[in-house]
Amino acid sequence: MTLYDLVAPGLDGSADPRYRIAEIRAADPLGADQPLAALPGMNRDADVPALTAALRGLLPDPAGVARWSVPEALAAMRDLGMLLGSLKRHGTEPLAAVPDALPVLAALGRRTGMVPRDTVHHYTTWNPPGARQRMFTGERMEAHLQQAVRMVFPALVAALDTCGELARLEPYDPGFATALDRTAHQVRAMVDSIDFTVAQVSPVFFARGLRPYFEEVEIAGRRYLGPAAAQVPLWLVDLTVWQCDRSDPAYDAFLDESAVYALPAWRAFRSAHRGGTSAVSKLSAALSWEGGSRTPPALARSARSLAELLRILKTFRARHFGIARKAYGEEVRLYEAGSGGAPVALLRTVLDLTRDNETLVRRAAERPRTPAA
């Protein structure tokens, strides 16, 4: 049994409708099941007229969108988004081809509290698996990539709750280490996901077969990125663990751009904690204050737990950087930047920052101390 199996069922009873995964997947307010089953064939043929007709034919009355539930609106955006990405992949700006989509996308964005196009969550977590799965290519590797992201959503939701608790605690509190251990357990889902991706999805398939469907589109004069791995918010875990006060200007700028694609509760989490004191800074200050004396057991345990969490984050970052470097190598890539809009070099920066914080905590925790008199 995986962490997903334990956590996902509980989300369906959440007060936040964006966490009701089964309800969103089941919804088909546009009657898109049949048209989207034909989408891989239209994409293989680069059939822009058919894609344009499909988008136009699925558009609902914008006035009626306000009466939909949030899960229904998310499902509608999911399905329209598949056609937005497909048209752009074949060189057509979707709203230039179907201007009537603009008021619909704007209404769906307002109803869901999100950007007026699809995100990685629409494409993966809220996308029904099995016979109704929406795919650009229909290839098995695409299905595996979608599944890899589905694996982490419930764990990240749980991790954000735990990180909120962590931000309220101090390293001397036994609950500090407990919260870190729980977060580490939750974040391991990201490592499992990246390992699954490495085993099942080739960099060449992603770079040449799938990445073109994630291009940005223009909506009301603004360009919005397509579904991107960067929209899976591991950075919200970084935030309270180390990033809020030990970051880098390039990473900060990237997060400012990425945050708009997050769920409303996640944007609120970032706003609440971005000016706080990180777990690394709290622990460093506590260990420094202890000086040469014996480290209290609770503080020593907090140090070990924080070092372990940072090691897991570092492991994920290193593997993600390795995949990206292959997918965006000169001999393979079609694009300079990742689908999240950042160069691969930024992944290396974040990896180095994570490694530096892990090293700082581990050395501080292992530094010999003079026994108390």
Q: Tell me the Rg in angstroms.
A: 22 Å
CA distance, first residue to last residue? 50 Å
CATH topology of the largest domain: Methane Monooxygenase Hydroxylase, Chain G, domain 1
How would a textbook summarize the main sheet? 2 strands, antiparallel
- Helix amount: 55-70%
Low-confidence stretches: 1-7
Q: Beta-strand level of the residues, as a percent range?
A: under 5%
Query: Secondary-structure element sequence?
Result: HHHHHHHHHHHHHHEEHHHHHH
Give the count of structural domains: 2
Number of helices: 20
Strand sequence of the main sheet, in spatial order? Answer: 1-2
* Strand runs, count: 2
Dominant shape? elongated
Average per-residue pLDDT, rounded, comes to 89
At CATH level 2, the architecture of the largest domain is Up-down Bundle
CATH class of the largest domain, named: Mainly Alpha
Tell me the structural class: mainly alpha
What does this structure look like?
With 373 residues, the protein is an all-alpha fold. It folds into two domains: 14-138, Methane Monooxygenase Hydroxylase, Chain G, domain 1 (Up-down Bundle), CATH 1.20.58.1320; 147-213 and 229-366, Methane Monooxygenase Hydroxylase, Chain G, domain 1. Helix content is 64%, strand content 2%. It has 20 helices and two strands. The chain has a two-stranded antiparallel ribbon. Helix 11 (140-150) packs antiparallel against helix 13, helix 13 (174-200) runs parallel beside helix 19 and helix 18 runs parallel beside helix 20 (344-366). The model is unreliable at 1-7 (pLDDT under 50).
